[in-house]
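Usage

Read records sequentially. Each one opens with the input sequence:
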Amino acid sequence: MGAPTVLTEDRGPVRVVTLNRPERRNAIDLVLRAELGDALEAASDDADVRVVVLTGAGGTFCSGGDISTMRRMGPDETVPRAEAAQRVIRAIWGGEKPVLAAVEGAAFGAGVSLAAACDRVVASEEAVFGTAFTGVGLAGDMGLFSSLLVFTLLRDIVLLIASAFVTVSQMPAFTRLTAIATIVLAVLATLIGLFNARRRAAVVDVEVPVANLPAELRGFSIAQISDVHVGPTIKHEYVAAIVDAVNGLDADVIAVTGDVVDGNVRQLAAHVAPLSRLRSRHGTYFVTGNHEYYSGAQAWTKEFERLGMHVLMNEHVVLTHQEHQIVVAGVTDYSSHHFDPHHRSDPVVALQGAPAGAVVKILLAHQPRSAEAAAAAGFDLQLSGHTHGGQFWPWNHFVRFQQPFTAGLNRLQNLWVYTSRGTGYWGPPKRFGAPSEITRIRLIPA
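and closes with the structure output:
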């Protein structure tokens, strides 16, 4: 019998579970899946264990599925394989004890999925994450497969209703027809979504009524971009096209409301470089999104400052336009305190010291969830992103369970909140029912 593919070690109340196939870079086969499920369930049942740390031997976390064991299989083999994978995820999600992924070296394919399933991921500076399909813009649990899932569920509902009206002799033909329609609709939605995602975002004009707005500030304009997500499929040319479009708006201010990048500065500096060409009368202002924290917020804020942006981290600037004062404030991402306690998002702090006589107080906040605190602080307008407007149907209907607003202009007490659908996309290049946008916001008298 060979060495165990999963090792366990107790360090006080912490149980370290180590994937132990270093000769295969800890690639997952059926044996490892089974032993990992055993180890995680045992840790969950052990009263002395408070935390589980999942890691890999030999300087690699997990290189994904073991391709050498993959072949055409019948139901007798594929079902146990799927059940073993589901058992591992259930053991992580279903247990009361937190599971931390400690990632050193490579985490590819199924290794990324395994790490992402954990409650927290701690990665070394040398860690590298990669999924097999992101280079061509596909992800195994979204994109085409998402549409196939949705249309398959809709097909099941149609078949259930049809069973009351379609005769037994007609049902086989109807079943075949709906099966073909499901595939065609899923592919069509994905192709339309690909076209919408890869084209340059359209300009969306929005007018925001402001009480007691002086005549000189009528038409004061803000160009907003958000959620560009420069990374695996969004590169230099895509960003350059956005910059050209924004500069063409001749805006008074440019607001960049977070999630610009998905990767570190070393990987992406050349691709975000066009942002240095952004031009407006009063400058470009940036606030962090959650993805900046995933990608190294400290390094990125320095890089964005080098590119000429003004980074606002719970602070404000006072602009004078036509002899009237406008406050532009910015907060760190709503979730930033999970990464750095000193970065806790705080609209009240961002407004401290602002002139009481300012005509308009504008807050840049990545997540719409900042709106309640912004309204209490006394802001007039909040510009946000984060939601992507759901990015593609039907997930736009689920954003409201996590954020107060999905997209567009909304009102909360005396605060206007504009939520951008984003200027790029995240994950698969797919936008269906939620087009990307470059937003031109104009202030008008209420």
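Summary fields computed downstream for this record:
- Residues 134-142 have pLDDT under 50 and may be disordered.
- The CA atoms of residues 26 and 62 lie 5 Å apart.
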